[in-house]
């Protein structure tokens, strides 16, 4: 079958090079030519140059934003197959104006819920520090912190936050929560104590962020909030980087205003190689892997194949070799 009759599909930002292994792409045999990109490019000009030939883009979450500026320079693009239930980094208005269809996949919060707890536990027991010491020939160098009896503060009590709270109670923690829309009824139904914002920041020993990024939540945690926290407190962000004022967080960490931070999300991703988060000894930093699990990737890529096949079935007759 001549290659020009194939739809060209680009799989973007497959950092682990697993996309083709975690789903059955054979339904696209003789219908699509698939190109996988394992690296990330961030400059608009680079993105446009790379993506210009493709009819279909399979994007992983929000790794490569598809802005109006970029979409207007992709003349062949007809379908964006995004992983996850939504993707705030796609300009859907610009896509619609250009007749580009945007489809999404299933999603599960389980990896993020479990990952948030891996961060809390790792910080409480200084696991990364002790592991590094052991690798370098050392032995015990820190004192851990027990969770029982401590206060877990939840900034947000949605699907992820409420599940994190359930686990906190299993560790016999005092679980409190606040967000801009949280009601007493919602908090009570999740077995969590509703408090005001000041109380959340001033009493939490571990403060975990679980709100969506929006204009209301951008910069929600800043210098004033860090000033209220105890010097023994730690903050965990597995949601979105810009919810926390990065400059204020760095200042609080460097001054000892708070004890530490576990961070999986950043203002700019991938994180700059010289960023202080990579080297501060009271920061546990990971490369936005909260949702990165084999099981969820299987859902992402499996659903993406089905989405592309359904789109092809709508727009053209299946090709035969």
Automatic annotation (TrEMBL):
Domain D-isomer specific 2-hydroxyacid dehydrogenase catalytic: from-to ranges: 24-314
Keyword Protease: no
Database matches in InterPro entries: D-2-hydroxyacid_DH, D-isomer_2_OHA_DH_cat_dom, D-isomer_DH_CS, D-isomer_DH_NAD-bd, NAD(P)-bd_dom_sf
Occurrences of domain D-isomer specific 2-hydroxyacid dehydrogenase NAD-binding (ranges): 118-290
Highest taxon, organism lineage: Bacteria
GO MF term list: NAD binding; oxidoreductase activity, acting on the CH-OH group of donors, NAD or NADP as acceptor
The keyword NAD is annotated on this UniProt entry: yes
Alphabetically ordered keywords of this record: NAD, Oxidoreductase
Annotated Pfam families: 2-Hacid_dh, 2-Hacid_dh_C
Family label: Belongs to the D-isomer specific 2-hydroxyacid dehydrogenase family.
Protein name as catalogued: D-2-hydroxyacid dehydrogenase family protein
Source organism of the structure: Trinickia violacea
